[in-house]
Amino acid sequence: MDETAFPGRLPERDRPWVMRTYAGHSSATATNALFRRNLAKGQTGLSVAFDLPTQTGYDPDHELAAGEVGRVGVPVTHLGDMRALFDGLPLADTNTSMTINAPAMWLLALYGTVGLEQGADLTRCAGTTQNDIIKEYLSRGTYIFPPAASLRLTADVVAYTLREMPRWNPVNICSYHLQEAGATPVQEVGFALATAVAVLDAVRDSGQVPAERMGDVVQRISFFVNAGVRFVEEIAKMRAFGVLWDDITRDRYGVTDARQRRFRYGVQVNSLGLTEAQPENNIQRIVLEMLGVTMSRDARARAVQLPAWNEALGLPRPWDQQWSLRMQQVLAYESDLLEYPDLFAGSHVMTALVDEVVTGARVELDKVLELGGVVAAVETGYLKSALVASLAERRRRMESGADVVVGVNRYTETEPSPLTAAGADAVEQVDPAVEAAAVDGVRRWRADRDAAVVDAALARLRADAATSTNLMPATVECVRAGVTTGEWAGALRQVFGEYRAPTGLAGATGGGGEPGLAAVRERVTATARELGSGRLRLLVGKPGLDGHSNGAEQIAVRARDAGFEVVYQGIRLTAAQIVAAAVEEDVDLVGLSVLSGSHLAAVPAVLDGLRAAGRADLPVVVGGIIPAGDADTLRAAGVARVFTPKDFALTDIIDDLVTVIRRANDLP
Questions:
Q1: Per-domain boundaries in the chain
Q2: Where does the B12-binding domain lie (predicted)?
């Protein structure tokens, strides 16, 4: 049989999607070397991970940056860092994605300035700034300014790139983090499209883009989605996204060109679904999730980046990232996937699934629009509460065994894994000297520049921010003057103010019917009675800049269901603020959540603060992605218990918290 003549084949094999790995750590120089190695291995685009101080608009020497510099991404504090990051990498010929949101305008200005210094024509530069601030209030937590001001910055970037960088995707609407925060497929589609409507409305209403060019705006809007292991459902979700996006852009914005209305998206498959227990199982999870966004030709991702098998353990090494890249290459080049038309065209099963998601997502979208749009839905807490409740239900199903997670709640018997036999060597280690070098570097940078020029640039930025003027020109001036990331964000903080998003705990319940919760509730009540207090009080604290609050919120919900009075003030707290709250609220236990890897700096700072406040007796527990050796260090420093992702049963965790309180108070 002549396979090339098979009637179902495409006349030409499709081009593969852009292949990326999400990369960045330690310093701009170290990350540049990592980029070069990844490109040499066949990666076809760059995806830049920035560290938390950069993402939240702080310089490395700020109090909140302690322990966070270079840990989950690369620190970029000024123009010199951006030059080093892309040294020898021609930006005009490299498709670059930058996962940056609140300071997206700032990082794009740095990128564009370096491009011009390289001699690049900015109209040729292709890539993406994530620049979706809405999901930051709901999941990742790297917001800075209030929602309305943040949306103004997004609209300014869209208008600027339309004029100056027409091949650039100025915003990447992210449903990825909504799924991590608990969204069902219906909620993920509905809430993400509500965000897209808010961005397009803001651009349209800003007066910066003529009505006849809205099609040009729409065709540069891309999406960034999550893909879970239920890959058939994920395929239906992606097809539903395309149907609804086509309807919205045609009917709401009058875009008549079908090519401009095409749904374009990139994907990072589900990192949160990776497990610390039997981490080798993560390989097949990643492959199945990749199929959910590649099998359907009519809804295939434009770019794919995959996590590494060991991300539930810590920062992946270059070899781990290479393994994930090879998964993409095997699918694209060894399999016959790209040789056929859409495999699901005409499928009654798929059509029914897509229709179900479309109908449900329309209801969610209409509900958000009836509330006044996505900004109002953030400010009232509606979206956050809906996600916390959905995640609580997801956790309940996993704990009950209704949802099987292999190696975690079923089939837990295992042989020792040779992949993790090396212990801490199974993940990348960030040298503590990185932070000291970054602090020294930014101080030298400030000392070597013209202070008067810096002051003038920041004054212009503040003045423009107080009007409706597009802020990109003032931001570019700040870049050229040598302003730092923290100074740029600080100037806008002075005008816009800062913001603390709703926690979403008010209306959420989690394990009311969970077996064992009644017994824990009795222990909570009895312990409070023995201590002579009305209720046990738990402080849940998020020290530093780590904004991934899903786990902390689920602990807070389950503890409240068990009878605790929970004190939770949200994310981004200093050690001093956590200590002050613990003392003022007279809590019985402090629980700290740290997922960024900064636990060895953040936790001792809280312990030292409690000792200084005369509360060395107050027990402290910690949860996060914490290697075994680090857990030993924390326990030696005085931490009562350390919880990691393998501790998935929330009710059992709450029971342990009661035990910690009893032991700290010499109760039997």
A1: 18-400, 432-496, 517-665
A2: 535-664
